[in-house]
Amino acid sequence: MSKPTIVLVHGAFADSSSWTGVVAKLQEQGFPVVAVANPLRGVESDAAYVADVVKGVEGPVVLAGHSYGGALITRSATETPNVRALVYIAAFQPDAGESVFELSGRYPGAKLGPETTNVLVHNGTPELSIKPADFSEVFAADVPAETAAILAVTQRPVAQQALAAPFEGTPAWSKLPSWTLIANRDNAIPAAAQEFMAERASSTVRRIDASHAVAVSQPGVVAEVIAAAAAE
Do 67 and 90 contact (CB within 8 A), yes or no? Predict the structure, then answer.
């Protein structure tokens, strides 16, 4: 029996290379893998892009998202009948009317905010990036300092509207089985917020003491959670 294709969706302040260690672990197990280049422009348009990628995959798909990528898989999987399971890696699992900003601020502990972000206005659209001096603490506290410094420089900015816009429609987690890896030391999405969203979605939960950059610091564990979803 052939294995499902794993489609990985990175979040804000990162790019698809953040999945490098996870991809290697999954490929070792024989999984076909696609790492999407997330446009980071807005939930609806980004989710449509992810959906187009998934529709181009033959056979069943397990869709995994990190951070803001979780909002995208929640939206795109409503339009992709070949998706069999959702995997949330320190990610948002929004319901209708909720935004990334609102969910991350619902519980105390988030260090991502106006004090730790830079704003660039491009074509009239504000784009956010994490200040390099704050990147390690906010995003990658358990990653070696030299690696975090590189991640800070190579991060991709996200359109502010992508994080502020309310989620529309029925969330895919209400109809598909989901798995959630909660990062207990996450300074971008408080663990309490991750717990709330996972419980609401009836996700199968695993917890780990890791930063928001858990795919970088703990790729083996991330791959295990994705493989568990694929096995079901």
Answer: yes
pTM tops 0.90, yes or no: yes
pLDDT tens for the chain, 232 residues long, are 689 999 999 999 999 999 999 999 999 999 999 999 999 999 999 999 999 999 999 999 999 999 999 999 999 999 999 999 999 999 999 999 999 999 999 999 999 999 999 999 988 999 999 999 999 999 999 999 999 999 999 999 999 999 999 999 999 999 999 999 999 999 999 999 999 999 999 999 999 999 999 999 999 999 999 999 999 8
CB neighbourhood size of 105 (10 A): 15
What fold, for 5-230? Rossmann fold (3.40.50)
Identity of the amino acid at 198: A
**Residue extents of the structural domains in the chain:** 5-230
Amino acid at 89: I
